[in-house]
Amino acid sequence: MADVEQNAAVPDGSSNGSDAVNGTAGRFVSSAEGTALAYGSLLLMALLPIFFGALRSVGCSKSKNASDMPETITSRDAARFPIIASCTLFGLYLFFKIFSQEYINLLLSMYFFVLGILALSHTMSPFMCRVFPAQLPNKQYQLLFTQGSGESKEEIVNYEFDTKDLICLGISSVVGVWYVLKKHWIANNLFGLAFALNGVELLHLNTVSTGCILLGGLFVYDVFWVFGTNVMVTVAKSFEAPIKLVFPQDLLEKGLGASNFAMLGLGDIVIPGIFIALLLRFDVSLKKNTRTYFYTSFLAYIFGLGLTIFVMHTFKHAQPALLYLVPACVGFPVLLALFKGELTEMFREDKNAKTSAVWEHFKLIEGKTKAVCQICDLKLAYHNSTSSLKNHSSVSSMPLVYCWSKKKKQTAFILAQPNNNLSVLKVLLLKDLCVLYH
């Protein structure tokens, strides 16, 4: 993960970005007030996406909108993530060593321009729903791209949106153009906050054990790549993208044209954030009308990040934030669960989480509507005929729906209750059958 740094220079239109991390560290000494303002602002900006992303993750898990469905991280994903992240980091390092930094960053700017607009638009959508005037018409639109015809017809893109979404998209596009042209730190932070909030909201750990595996692996990853090599620092200096939050330490002296920044990587927000969001959902599942584990982990994050900043400021050296955040965010909630006698319940595998590991869109061959289906980690039986299904008396009265999974390139016979609205469905594992129900 990217780390907490100080005295970093971020391009604002007058810089080519070659000093993106420490290029001016030796030429500027920040005032005590400027340093305190920068650190305090970074801390506040880190807390916002975690707090609101966690709250939105609860609603996201109950959403009936296919576009808002979360991606679930399993224990296997968590174990592989540090390896994938290391390969990606080292690959970027080699790219910047071999190819021209200018062209790579141009390609990255275009990529994050599109990605940032979509992320910021999604972030603004709930707010726009509240402030959108009731007097104005809110028209519905659908963007649909298909391939083939008849039974082989496939949906490539199916996106539904309305007038509010178009307004959000327009505002986000202005920010995107501002970022591409000027690389201004405010535009960078708007995109960064949007990425972080969407990450906390839409990335769901399936169990606390998975969260411990992920955070533990990235703890080692962060420490190794910061203290063991110069790879992360080199990539951070060369990489021009809104993957970090920055705040100027010379804001009081130079205003919005400031160029010497303290920074915090988005990974140090999103990774602990999805664990904190998991604990909030665990609080909700306990049905005690308390948010003890959420607030404990949230305060632990504040403590860990504050300690990171203190150590970095004391030793004048970039710090791997996860070195302090992981023990705090995992340790405090676990100790609390041990004290309350809920440790077993906290680490108990959630069977419901298994049925939401992967969300997939199915095209109904015998029907015009679409079903959104959860495919669990368990191996579901796919049948080539209806005979084996109809032999089950418990479900023989239910109509059979033949579905094709574009993602898995497989077909499945799925049972549905009569007269159901197949636009939004859940999945129940019934013996070896995948049964859809409301």
From TrEMBL:
GO biological process, one term: signal peptide processing
InterPro entries, per the entry: Peptidase_A22B_SPP, Preselin/SPP, Znf_BED, Znf_C2H2_sf
Any one Pfam family match given in the protein's UniProt record, by short name: zf-BED
Record membrane topology: Multi-pass membrane protein
GO cellular component: cytoplasmic side of endoplasmic reticulum membrane; lumenal side of endoplasmic reticulum membrane
BED-type domain: residues covered: 353-392
GO molecular function annotations of the record: aspartic endopeptidase activity, intramembrane cleaving; DNA binding; zinc ion binding
Keywords of this entry: Endoplasmic reticulum, Hydrolase, Membrane, Metal-binding, Transmembrane, Transmembrane helix, Zinc, Zinc-finger
Keyword Zinc-finger recorded: yes
SMART domains in the record: PSN (SM00730), ZnF_BED (SM00614)
Keyword field contains NADP: no
Organism domain of life: Eukaryota
Subcellular location(s) per record: Endoplasmic reticulum membrane; Membrane
Stretches that traverse the bilayer: 36-58, 78-96, 102-120, 187-205, 212-236, 256-280, 292-315, 321-339
Stated family: Belongs to the peptidase A22B family.
The protein's name in its UniProt record: BED-type domain-containing protein
The organism of origin for this protein: Cyprinus carpio carpio
